Amino acid sequence: MATVELRFSAQPEHVRTARLVAAAVARRAGVDEAVLDEVRLAVGEACSRAVGLHRSHGITTPVRVVLTEEEKAFSIEVGDGVLGPGSGSGAPEAREDASAGDLHESDAEDEDEMGLAVISGLVDDVEVTSGDDGGVIRMSWPTATAVALP
C-alpha cells in the first residue's frame, strides 16, 4: 500500500496543485483514464470546501490530503481541521431563528452542502465524517486490477 500525503495552507491557489497531484497519483495507481476527470473535480471540490472552512473558522493548520493506493482501490482523504458542527458532517447547526447576522453563515452552509452534493454526484464511494481532528471526506475509486476482465 503506497501513500502520498499533501499538506497546504488554506489558500485557494493551492487547490489546483492538489488536483494535479491527485490525478497523477490516481493514474499511477491504475485508476481508469476515463475517471481521472472525476477524481480531479472531486478533489478540487473537497479541497475548496476545506479551504473555505479553514478561512471562515480562522484555522491556521494546513489542509491535509492523503492519497492511498490499496490492492484494488485508490482512496483520497481530505481533512478540514474544523471541530464540531459544520465540520466534516456537513450538517448545519440547529438554529431557532435566522437573523440578518446569520445570513452570511447560512450562505456558507448552503455552499458547503452544495459542495458535498457535487462530490456525492462524482464519486460512488464517498464517506463524510467528523472526529477529534476535524472533518474528513474519504473518496475511493477502483483500480485497473479491481476491474480486470476475467
Top keywords for this entry?
Heat Shock Protein 90, single chain, five-stranded antiparallel β-sheet, alpha+beta, 150 residues
Verbal overview:
The chain is α+β, with helices and mostly antiparallel strands and 150 residues long. 38% of the residues lie in helices and 25% in strands. The chain has helices at residues 15-29, 36-57, 103-122, and strands spanning 2-8, 63-69, 73-79, 125-131, 134-142. A hairpin with a 2-residue loop joins β4 (125-131) and β5 (134-142). α1 (15-29) runs antiparallel to α2 and α2 (36-57) packs antiparallel against α3 (103-122). The chain is globular, with a radius of gyration of 16 Å. The two termini are 24 Å apart. Residues 88-101 have low confidence and may be disordered.
Level-1 CATH class name: Alpha Beta
SSE order, one letter for each helix or strand: EHHEEHEE
CATH topology: Heat Shock Protein 90
**Form type:** globular
Give the number of helices.
Answer: 3
Identify the strand order in the major beta sheet.
Answer: 1-2-3-5-4
Instruction: List the uncertain runs.
Output: 88-101
**Secondary structure tally: strands:** 5
**Through-space gap between termini:** 24 Å
Question: Over the alpha carbons, how many angstroms does the gyration radius reach?
Answer: 16 Å
- Average pLDDT metric: 82
Largest sheet: 5 strands, antiparallel
> DSSP strand (E) fraction?
15-25%
